[in-house]
């Protein structure tokens, strides 16, 4: 079981690194990776001008079991919202914020699907 967990973590980390690189190519500045607040975690927080974006990254090795973005449920959304609120308060952010989902499928080459404004 331990090696499966490690492989899962490596898969997730690979996806997050690819997503962060992709966002930088799109002109975003990465402010934080793996931001934690209580039991919530935001995979990537980026900024572009006056927009703060909280990004949930979902990674799969194939799309055999459905698309990665389908794994974001309402409980996960609530956790993300609470972490985002904490970060906004902590930073004194006064501008717009958005929630995106980036799904990464680790095929060769990897496929990145960016869903902007995924939920509110």
TrEMBL record:
InterPro entries (alphabetical): Restrct_endonuc-II-like, tRNA_endonuc-like_dom_sf, UPF0102_YraN-like
Pfam families linked to this entry: UPF0102
Annotated family: Belongs to the UPF0102 family.
Name used for this protein in its record: UPF0102 protein ACFQ2O_05545
Phylogenetic classification of the source organism: Bacteria, Pseudomonadati, Bacteroidota, Cytophagia, Cytophagales
